[in-house]
Design a protein that fits this description.
This protein has two helices and eight strands; from the N terminus they run E-E-H-E-E-E-E-E-E-H. The chain is mainly β and about 180 residues long. It has two domains: about 5-65 and about 130-160, Chitinase A, domain 3 (Roll), CATH 3.10.50; about 70-125, Thrombin, subunit H (Beta Barrel), CATH 2.40.10. The protein is elongated and about 60 Å long.
């Protein structure tokens, strides 16, 4: 079966930045709905007409992926409002920010602690890969027809491209993006 809109494709990939640094490896196939909300438009377009076993190399510019870095999504919060054990890389959901934070901060965003100062904390609502051009090496593992439920939901249940990453407490690399 060839890839067309409203089908489900199982993919593996290697994601790198333009300097060749590996950002993510998906070695076990994960299913995505083509024609839904699971994949970026450029990826969907590149997949069209291919079948199982196909290998595709893509470069995604920031505007085709996670967007440009937006300095308007950086916010300051009083250090005293946050837990004593706060660390860079921790995340806070907008609706769960401490009372007293800037009321204009979007409630539907996920904020990453970017920097900690004695008097304030810098919170970043940009996606961790915002502003970065990406190189994506895809392999199509399988293709199948989408179910009515998947088409209705607009997803095969994979939220990869909406995931925000939280750095671990031990200073090691962040978890995979998938």
């Amino acid at each position: 079966m060839e890839i067309t809109p409203q089908c489900v494709v199982a993919l593996t990939w290697t994601l790198k930045d333009t300097l060749g640094e590996e950002l993510d490896v998906l070695s076990d196939p994960v299913e995505f709905l083509v024609g839904g909300d699971d994949l970026f438009d450029k990826i969907e377009t590149a997949l069209q007409g291919h079948g199982p076993g196909a290998r595709i190399e893509l470069q995604l510019e920031p505007e085709e992926a996670f967007g440009d870095f937006n300095d308007q999504l950086l916010f300051l919060g009083a250090r005293a409002l946050f837990p004593k054990d706060i660390e860079e890389g921790m995340t806070f959901e907008g609706h769960a920010l401490p009372a007293g934070c800037d009321p204009t901060m979007p409630k539907d965003a996920l904020y990453t602690v970017a920097e900690i100062y004695p008097e304030h904390v810098v919170l970043d609502a940009n996606h961790p890969l915002a502003g970065i051009a990406l190189r994506l090496s895809l392999q199509v593992a399988s293709v199948r027809e989408a179910t009515e439920e998947e088409i209705g939901a607009g997803t095969a249940g994979t939220g990869f491209f909406r995931v925000q990453v939280q750095a671990p407490d031990d200073g090691s690399a962040p978890p995979p993006l998938h």
